[in-house]
Structures are given as structure tokens and as C-alpha cells.
Write a structure and sequence with these properties.
Layout: H1 3-20, H2 24-48, H3 59-62, H4 64-79, H5 82-92, H6 102-105, H7 111-122, H8 127-132, H9 143-158, H10 161-170, H11 176-193, H12 197-233
Helix pairs in contact: 1-2, 1-12, 2-12, 4-7, 7-9, 10-11
């Protein structure tokens, strides 16, 4: 059973138990715990799904093209730079060994892609709701798994036969660097065009729900504490 569902069930049980036993403290604790947990759950859900009547929901699928553009910018400006291509060609293509881009890719900083995704969310209509959940800091636990997933995806693209063939065919060209970069950029565009909003949503959704599930738990905990305090005031 996932953390979110368990938290909501516990809160509802406390609410029902307090009502049946006419225990004001338990009733208020359950009521406020459920309110905090369900609100945080809805906020996470709204990142991925369009909810009728709630403006700003479904922000990640809605910003799908910006997400793809951030991936392309990362690969072209940090990985497939003229400097990196030149070093790679001199080392890898000078002999008969097979091409292996992974050692070069391990040195690439993928953190800017995550920061771009966070900026998209923060600057969208969802930003105000994100502020209520702790601001962009609430998304920081996702950085490492996101970076690892992006690195894995880029490795797969870089190991494709089309990328390697483009490097080999252009090695002797007078305008080698410009042509290699143009060819690689076209290949990246083609591969990114194969992505669908659904695939990207599922990839990010799996990571975020796994780590942001604690927001629902803590929403229930703090809501319950506020409810207990309120019971003594009421």
C-alpha cells in the first residue's frame, strides 16, 4: 500500500472514530489530517493530470515541448560541443576500437536540465500551489534520481548506430565539426520527436510520486497536530 493512501485511510479512521466516540480531539485531528493529506495529494496529482475547473493543472504535459527543448539544449551545449567532439574523435577514432561515448557522458553535468524543469513548474500557474508545499525546495529530493534517469536516456541515444555512423562519415570532412553537430542535432530532433507527452509524463510521474509521497504523509501529520491544537481552542 502506498504512503499517500495509507495516510488518508488513517486520517479517515481517526475522523470516523472521533465522531463515533464523540471525542473532539480525535475528530479534529482526523479532520485536519485528512485535509492536509488530501490537499497535498491533489497538488501532486495536478502536476500530471488536467483537473476540470482547476486552472494550472496538468502543467507537465502542457509544457511538454519546453521539456524536450531543455533536453536538446543540454545535449548540444554540454555534450556535443566542438571541444568534446574533437577530443572524442582523436581518442576513439584513431584506432580500431569500437566507439564508446559513455565515459565522456559521465562527466556531463545534467543538473541544469532538472533546474529547467523546476523553473518551468515554478513559473507556471502551478507555482503558487508549489509555494504552499514548500516551494522549489520540495522538489530537490528528485534531483538525483532525475539526473540518473536523464543520464541513462542520453547514453542510450548516444550509443545508437545513427550517432556513431554520423561521426564516422564526417570525420574526414573539411567542415567536420559543423557538419557533425548539424547531423547529431537532426538525429536528436528525430529521437525526441519519438517521445510522446504520455511517455515523458510517466517517466517523471514515477519519480515524483515515489519521492513526493512523503508530502502527503507530512501534510497529514502536521494537519493532525493543528487539529489537536484546534480542539482545545474550539
Amino acid at each position: 500500500m502506498n504512503k499517500s493512501l495509507l495516510t488518508n485511510l488513517v486520517a479517515l479512521a481517526l475522523l470516523a472514530g472521533g465522531y463515533q466516540a464523540d471525542n473532539q480531539t480525535a475528530f479534529y485531528a482526523g479532520l485536519f489530517a485528512f485535509s492536509g493529506a488530501i490537499t497535498n495529494w491533489l497538488a501532486i496529482h495536478m502536476l500530471f493530470e488536467k483537473v476540470p475547473g482547476l486552472y494550472g493543472s496538468g502543467v507537465i504535459p502542457a509544457r511538454f515541448e519546453e521539456f524536450k527543448a531543455a533536453i536538446k539544449t543540454l545535449m548540444m551545449e554540454q555534450f556535443f560541443t566542438q571541444s568534446n567532439i574533437d577530443k572524442f574523435l582523436n581518442k576513439e577514432m584513431g584506432g580500431s576500437t569500437s566507439l564508446n561515448l559513455e565515459p565522456v557522458l559521465e562527466k556531463v553535468d545534467f543538473n541544469p536540465t532538472f533546474d529547467s524543469l523546476v523553473d518551468v513548474i515554478a513559473n507556471s500557474s502551478f507555482g503558487s500551489m508549489l509555494t504552499m508545499l514548500g516551494g522549489t525546495e520540495a522538489l530537490q529530493p528528485l534531483k538525483q534520481p532525475f539526473v540518473e534517469k536523464m543520464q541513462e536516456s542520453v547514453v542510450q541515444i548516444s550509443q545508437s548506430d545513427s550517432v556513431k555512423q554520423a561521426l564516422k562519415e564526417q570525420f574526414e570532412s573539411p567542415a567536420m565539426m559543423e557538419e557533425i553537430q548539424a547531423n547529431i542535432e537532426n538525429i536528436i530532433d528525430q529521437r525526441l520527436d519519438e517521445l510522446t507527452p504520455k511517455l515523458v509524463k510517466e517517466m517523471v510521474q514515477k519519480m515524483i510520486k515515489q519521492h513526493l509521497g512523503w508530502l502527503v504523509v507530512w501534510g497529514g501529520v502536521f494537519g493532525g497536530l493543528i487539529g489537536i491544537g484546534s480542539s482545545f481552542v474550539a
